[in-house]
Predict the structure.
Amino acid sequence: MATIDQPDRSGAEWNGWQKVVFRIIFIYFSLQIVPLDWKYYLHLAGVDWLHLSFRDIFNIAKYTPQFTSSVAHGQDWGQAGFADWGFIFLLALVGGLFWSWRDKERGNYVRLYYYLLVLVRYRLAIGVIAYGFLKVFALQAPYPSVSSLNTPYGDFTSWKLFSLSLGIVPGYQSFLGVVELLAGLFLLFRKTAPVGAIIIVFFTGNVFMSNLAYEGGDVVYSFYLVVLALFIVVYYAEQIINLLILAQPAAPVIVPISWSGSAKKLRWGVKSMVVLVFVVFYGISVYGSAVKGNYHFSTQPGLKGLTGLYTVNSFSVNGRVLPASLLDSIRWQDVVFEKWATLSIKINTYYSPVNDNREGIPAQDGGDAFESTATTGRHYYSYQADTVKKVLILRDLTHSGENAGQLSYAPQPDSTVILKGNVNGKVVEAILQKNNKKYLLKASEKGRRGSLKL
Amino acid sequence: MSATNISVDAYSQPPLIWKPYQKVLFRICFIFFILMSIPENPDWYTQVFTFDWTSLHYRDLYDIARFQPSLTRGAGYYGYADWLILLVVAVFGGTIWSLADKRRNEYNVLYYWLTVIIRYRAAIGIIGFAFTKVLPVQMPYPSTGILNTNFGDLTAQKIYWLSISIVPWYQVFAGVVELTAGVLLFFRKTATLGAIILFGALGDIVYVNFAYDGGVHVYSSYFVLFAAFLIAKDIPKIYNLLIRERYTIPVNFNIQIRQRWLQITRIFLKTGVIVLFLFVFFYVQLNNFIYDPYKQPAAKGIAKLRGYYRVKEFRLNNVSIPYSPQDSLRWQDVTFEKWTTLSFKQNKPVVLDLSNGGGSPMRDINRTFELAGVAGGRRVFYYEADTVNQILYLQDKNKGANEFALAAKTALKKKKSSYKNFLSDQQEYELLDHKGLTGRRRKGITSERAQETDRNTMVLNYSTTDGKEVVLKGIDEHKDSVYVVLQRLDKKYALKPGKLSAGKY
């Protein structure tokens, strides 16, 4: 039934090398996509299916085969490296050659190529939608904490600065998310898939370049998505090049498969499931989390009325008074109480920043200690407040993650606060004075046309 | 494959009869885009003839490449007022044209020439932008002063610019994308691909400019609009091919030039544009990158002083002031940059420079990227050094107001300037590497010096034995005597410096 609109390609004979290359590619992409890594099922078994949250779906969506890395970490689902790619490629090479040796009859793989295209489309769609929603609700890069606002520019790693710089413009982050999400939805439908794939080549290609430049942790994964998108673009390359570059007539891609009977039902079932789980349920769940606050920060509320930046008016350690100084490596310079149960102290010390730069969702809100990683100069503590005894029990976020002592707090009538107690083995006493600092970042929100004195 | 066997003339001819609405729309677009592509500012023309073509500065070519309608100087409608005015003119003109020319059936040839103009205008414009990123000078790596300024003490615009500056190779990549779009637009076959890249890349930049208050939203939208016009004719074709999944024949508007002299003229013009805006531009931009990065002062700062210091002792009129975070007189820290800048931090509000810190200042003192959009009490001074007697002659780089407030102030009262400079014009030239001292730089230094107004000044004597401790003493901006002991801090930053840095210091 070939017409000018619907040319039939299903009968055409492929070259010998085309068939060999296809067999290798088919095995390679199948191994990259179909979850065959047993560790994945170990993690799946650990999911609380009755209380399925977007964190689980995010991890499920981020499947990459890790055949060469053998350890299954508890909460961490892990991520493939280029070594895994190499291993899979070797398997594909051997398998493809073996297959070619066994099967000499076959004329072409038009149908199998199409099935592979569908598989790649769905895998890519699920992957980018998972990230898209995090951006739509401006969760991936949170607005900087008060501690971050009071940290010198040079005291962050480049990856943290990338995140903070995106964090100050939630509207732009949402826009990026909408682009990513739309491209993902386009991939779910045959007719819009090539447009979706082209958008992803540029969009995720840029994400990949950013990961390289800012030393992010998703170099391999973002490249994985780009390769999938390129696969789809290549499928449509001939017609796009004909139309847009060679100015030649272009024939559309014809589906070499007719979905009918039970295949049709299966197709609709799978498609509906994907949309229901990875779009509808996931989207609602991400929104539900966003309403509660950003998952990068603890949901434990901070002490009421204490939130803000404080100057340290007076400070003593083990009974010895230390005068204000920018050079002293013990004396506190300023203290920040966040809206959530974190406090940070600026001290003139350098410690190597912990660089947890892989994009993930912590098992508990604040569990990734986003605020204290990839930065130096401030010391971060999370606290449990006993509001009756007026005591804060501290946990050191910067170094050990362990108990760091406790501080009693006493707000004074002159709006100062006295902190007393034991921190990291030192007996300290500090008088804090609230600093109602005006930030240029906020003061210039109305625009830069007026005159501003700060 | 059977599809390619179908015998159809590969080149579909453009329609011989256009629909009435297409003709009216085309006439409006034609007038609009021609007006958008013509420099209306007389300065553009005078500049072209006054450049020193024997000693080109990157900004000479940049200025040729960068223009946009500027009838109202960007006022109103988010800066798009000029576009609206031109649109009204185009609608008016297009209507008259439609009434006057009722016989005409099509504008196939005129459409072709319009796309040529749009392609070249967009290509030259975006290449002008691209080169400042390809050789990364548009976003310079943060100065030591900025590295020691809190994140919250920066404007959003500054934060975005800095976020690109810290990864110079990414800046190069962004430049290469823009450059690729520009180069593809020079050729008919690749023009659509170039327009698609331009549309995507600049569309993002428009959004970035709105989000971060970057101030370049109108000019970036300009390219999005031009790219959109070029893509427009292919949109129905792409829709037909991909969404409707139908056999699609593209329309070819290209004309064949048959006259010999026209062919020669075309090759001559095309080669000229490509040589000037790709090769010559690359060369002058490379010169700028190596010797004269345009947002940074180019003269070398005193080598042994460079670094970050905490103030150990501070005496004002011989009275020692101990450190206290609330004190508004004492200096807290001091930086000496690679170039001729001293900055110090003081807990005292100042009127900020809220500009982008860009433009094309030719004097080092007027290169303000290190202070524009930066608060936190940091004061930034340009210095001229008498290295024999170890004296720094310092001038405040912040003119105490932003450009708009300043314009209003100078209009009110023309105060007589008592401006005095330590160095002569000739001495200021000699601070620069002679390879970076282009015609424009030389002329600019002299003319900017003539326009100088009063600034805060300091004269400080410096002494150091091993660079670990530096003593500054002299007269500060309020004519008080100061005595400052600085202790060098070999500060380790979490941020790793880029390996690709502009300038020779």
Confidence is low (pLDDT under 50) at residues 1-8, 401-405 of chain B. Chain B touches chain A through 88 residues (CB under 8 Å).
